[in-house]
Amino acid sequence: MATSQQTADDIVAALDALAPDVRVRKMFGEYGVYYQDVIVGFICDDTMFLKDTEVVRKLLASPVLGKPYPGAKDYLLLGPDIVSDETFFAKLVADTKSILPPKKKR
Asked: pTM of the entire structure?
């Protein structure tokens, strides 16, 4: 099942504290989530998946791992309760990006 545009819009709106540096890009009916042009996660089947990092795992009370698509690595599955807590959600995204390598130049 493909992710709805409304879900992608809602996730971008929940990350308003990081605007204008957050964007989503449609990919095969799903979405990639970028912060400062670095991909930090995916929205698949109307669910937010954040790259699995030790820093963010420690911030989550009960981290849940899942695969955004078949054959993918495990990502942190963020439920609606986390996404709706806009301040905490923005911190998770910013902390994830802070330890990822910078975007490769072409």
From this structure: 0.91
